[in-house]
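hey so u asked for the seq, here:
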Amino acid sequence: MATNMRAHEAGILHADGYGITPNWLPEPDDLSRLMPQLWPRNIARDADGELSVAGMSVTEIAREFGTATYVLDEDDFRTRARAFRDDFTAPFAQIGGADVYYAGKAFLCTAVARWIMEEGLGLDTCSGGEMAVAQRVGFPPERVALHGNNKTRAELRQALEWGIGRIVVDSFAEIDRVAEIAAELGVVAPVMVRVTVGVEAHTHEFIATAHEDQKFGFSLMNGRAREAIDRIVAKGEALHLLGLHSHIGSQIFDTAGFEVAARRLIELHTEVADEHDIAMSEMDLGGGYGIAYTSEHDPLTPQQLGEQMGDLVERELKTFQERHPDAAVPRISIEPGRAIAGPSAFTLYEIGTIKDVDVTPDLTRTYVSVDGGMSDNVRTALYGADYSCTLASRTSHAEQRLVRVVGRHCESGDIVVMDEYLQQDITEGDLVAVPGTGAYCRSLSNQYNHTPRPPVVAVRDGRARVIVRRETIDDLLALDVDDPDPEEAR
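ran it, C-alpha cells below
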C-alpha cells in the first residue's frame, strides 16, 4: 500500500475534515455522470438514477442473482474483441499480418472461450485447466498457445496430444522436457522462445515482467536466449522453432516500450536467420495494454495501438528484409486480455455498514462496507490498484463526501476502492457498482473467510444469464475430508 499512501499524503485535506483527496482524483461536478471509458458500452442511468446494462436494471440483477455479482456486458466484450481482431491488425496487412490471442488469465470460462472462438481470436493459456476450458468448447487447438514458467509434464503432454499451435518455452529444462514428450508421442512440437528483452514498462513492480530479476524467460543480455535457440535447433526432429516471444509488463499506456522490445527481438530474429538460415514465421509482442480504472487513465484504442505498433514493427523489420530479401517476415501476434475483458464488466455490491472513523483530531474517514471485498477483487490489496465506484440503485442530490469502500473480510487491507466521492445520504441496502472488474478479479478470486465466490452474469439485449454460477457453502465443504481415524473410532 506504500504507493497509495504516498499519493494520499500528497493529497488535499477537506475543509470539513472528511478524508484526504489524492491529487489525481478530481472533485466531480455531477456524481451521477458516468465516465464512458470506465464502463461497458451498454451502460445507462435512467431518470431515477438507476443503472442498467444492455437493457436490464441493476435492481433486477440484484433481485435475481444476489450481490456481490460480476455483471458482464456480452456485446461490449465481443465488440472489443472484434476491434482488436480488425482495427488492430489492419496496419499489419502489408507486413506479414497479425493475430490476436486473448489472454485467458484475465478471465476465462466456457462461455468466454466460445465468444473468443466465434470472434476469430486465438487463445493464450497458461495451465492445464485453461486448456481444458478451451477443449470443452471445441476451440481449434492450432489457435491456442501454452505459457508458463513451470509447465508440468502432464500439461505438456495434454497440449501436444491435443495438437496445440504453440508452446512458449521458458527454461532449458523445459526445452528438453518438450522434446522428450514430443518424441514419445511421435509429433513435432511447435515452440516459441520467451525472451527477456530488458525493457521494464512503467508499471507496478510486481506486474513488470521484462526486467532481468524475475522468473520468466531467457535473458537476451547474457546470451541465454541465443543458447536456448541453438538448443532447439539442435533438436530439430522433435521441435519446430516458430519464433520469439516477449512480454514487457501490464497496464501500459504507450507503445515506447514495445518499440524497444520489437527492435531487440527483430535483431535476434535476424541473427538466427544469419547463423542458422532459418526465417522464423512468428513473433509475439505480448500484451499488457492498459484500461481506465479511474479518471487518471487514458488508454489507447485498438486502432491507435495497431497503427503505432504497425509503424514501429515495419520500421524495425527493414534491416531484416535488407539482409534476407527472399525470406518472409514474421507474423506478429499480441495478447490483450485485460483490454478486452476489463472494461466489459463491473461488480455490483450492496452496502451494509457505514462508519465514520476519527483518524486524527483533524481527519475523519468514512468507511463504506459492502458484501464482497478481497475475495472477489484482491487487486487493491495485492497491487495497491485504484478503482472507481458509483451509487447504482437510485438518484441522490445530497452533498458529496470522500469515502473509502471496504470489504467484509477480517483484514484491514480489505479495501475495494481506496478513495471515491459518494453522496452523503448513502445507506444500508443501496447498491454500488465498481467498473473495470472484468479482468483479474474473478480469475484471482478466492474463498477467504470461507466466503463463496460471486457469480458472473452476462447480459445481452435485456436478458441476463449466469455463465459462472455462485459458489455455495456445499461447494466450500465439498473438498473437506473428515473421516475419523479408524483407531480412534473404535
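Confidence is low (pLDDT under 50) at residues 1-9. DSSP finds 14 helices and 23 strands in the chain.
lmk if thats what u needed
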